[in-house]
Amino acid sequence: MATVYEDNLPKHHGATQNEKLVIAASSLGTVFEWYDFYLYGLLATYISAQFFSGVNETTGFIFALAAFAAGFAVRPFGALVFGRIGDIVGRKNTFLVTMGIMGLSTFSVGLLPNYASIGVAAPIILVIMRLAQGLALGGEYGGAATYVAEHSPNHKRGLYTSWIQTTATFGLFAALLVVIGIRMVIGEESFAAWGWRVPFLISIILLAVSMWIRMQLNESPVFQKMKDEGTTSKAPLTEAFAKWGNLRWVIIALMGAVAGQAVVWYTGQFYALFFLEKTMKVDGATANILIAISLALGTPFFVFFGWLSDKIGRKPIILGGCAVAALAYFPLFTALTTAANPALAQAQASAPVTIVAHQDECSFQFDPVGKNKFDSNSCDIAKTYMAKTGINYTNVEAPAGTQAQVKVGNTVFTAPDPTTLAGDDRKAAISAYQDKLKAGLADAGYPAKADPDQINKPMVVAILFVLVLLVTAVYGPIAAMLVELFPSRIRYTSMSLPYHIGNGWFGGFLPTTAFAMVAATGNIYYGLWYPVTVAALTVVVGLLFLPETFKRSIDQ
User: Fold this and answer.
1) What proportion of the chain, given as a percentage, has pLDDT over 90?
2) Which residues pair with 394 in a beta bridge?
3) For the purposes of burial, counting CB atoms within 10 Å of the CB of 177, is it exposed (0-12), middle (13-18) or buried (19 or more)?
């Protein structure tokens, strides 16, 4: 490939028009991989019904989110495996391997029989497919970021790599459009029965296109130079993690930048969607459309903040985004409640719900094996029903042995004592209590679902846009910063691990963890403490230990 000198930069950092096209092609290929990965999160509700139908509704949804998170759990291991390969044999061929694994795993989900057909084997195979996806993605991102950065002029590295940062959102956006389109064409009933499989199946076409695009790419010029000179690393894992001089930067990168970036990203793009659907009871199609609009409005800011980071630095933008997020999440999600489901907000204000019980007698409202019916005491009966409704409530301590009460405003609903009942009598008593509580909540103004005509759609989009804007601030410059922190010979390995621990564990587990926190406490906003705490910690660590990198050369 012919290259030219730009501003007297080293030859292998001079980006010609042809190289810019290569970078664009790399970004486009990455979009397809993110499409594959995010389909699952968008369809968690349907997958829960298809593959976890043997458990209760709340547990099934959390299980579905856990299976979604399973893909994230193994991303750091994929980072180690493919990062090592990428530093030894090159970036291009590593791309192709990760892409094939990702695409075939995604396609297989569309063909997988459900729980009703093959029983427990269905969710097991599903999780295996998610693990394969996670391993592949663990190697993909580091390679893409490294590849683009190593094609970039030193003074435009933030701008160039920010296009890679847009790919996650473009992938999510593409998945949203496909899901929305299929829903509109075949209808909600057909989509729930079989239509959810179609987005997975058409991914095979995207795989073919993506493989063709990546095969047109040349090797990274920085890696090619090292290979020609014989200076590539023979033991990247040892150099990256067994030597304190590099390991300390891995830890600082994780805790001082990536962890906060990850929770802000997943809160703004995923938790917000799940919050609208599961807590605000906004129908899935409307929630997806509102998210898609906010993403369309916000996505250009990835490039803006990448460009800005070339001017003022990576650190102030990333840490500033984390700080604003930590301060703004509670008021933003409170405002989202009012905008998305005003009837619910009004009911919460006029008739707040409290559960009066001895808390030591109450179970944690999440069943890891899906077999607990939560009917052994009155507190569990009360809390299980409230967890299913998704309605906010507060807990009030009562003396031991007190029969649990649910107070809806000034109306009291005393849960039955199951210890005095058995068999059909117990079932009848619980059912009758739930019917009374359901009627009482309806009388107090609590809606079964959000009224589409009452949703303040412009305000919802505005709030979601602010959440996406925070995502773009923390995510736009992160690739450039990670590339600049580590030396060329172990760059792929070194940057991949903190990125995927942050985004795979801190971020990937956020929806599951946050909803479990909500189910356990009854407070619909309690799950926000997770991203708020992590983002605040990142600000502190980053301010103290994270260096500014935007003027560094990445030749060494």
Assistant:
1) 33
2) 354
3) middle
Q: What whole-number distance in Å separates Cα of residue 503 and Cα of residue 501?
A: 6
- Beta pairing class for 353-357 and 405-408: antiparallel
414-442 confidence digits (pLDDT tens): 988 887 877 788 889 888 998 999 999 99
User: DSSP label at 218?
Assistant: P
Question: Burial level of 104, CB count in 10 A (0-12/13-18/19+)?
Answer: middle
Q: How far apart are CA 159 and CA 150, in angstroms?
A: 13
- The CA distance from 405 to 382, in Å, is 7
**436/133 Cα distance (integer angstroms):** 46
Amino acid at 437: L
Q: Does residue 282 contact residue 339 with C-beta atoms inside 8 Å? A: no
pLDDT in tens, 162-220: 888 788 778 877 888 888 899 889 988 889 888 989 998 988 887 887 778 777 777 77
Helix (H) or strand (E) holding 185: helix 157-186
On the question of pLDDT at 11 being above 60, the answer is: no
User: What residue spans define the domains of the chain?
Assistant: 11-341+451-545, 346-443
Q: Mention the CATH class of domain 346-443.
A: alpha beta
d(CA 177, CA 259): 29
Nearest partner of 490 among 138, 246, 259, judged by Cα = 246
Number of Cα atoms under 13 Å in the Cβ half of residue 20: 9
Q: What are the start-end ranges of the E strands in 341-439? A: 353-357, 393-397, 405-408, 411-414
Reported pTM: 0.82
Query: Would you tell me which CATH number, out of the four given (3.40.50.720, 1.10.10.60, 1.20.1250.20, 1.10.1160.10), belongs to the domain 11-341+451-545?
Result: 1.20.1250.20
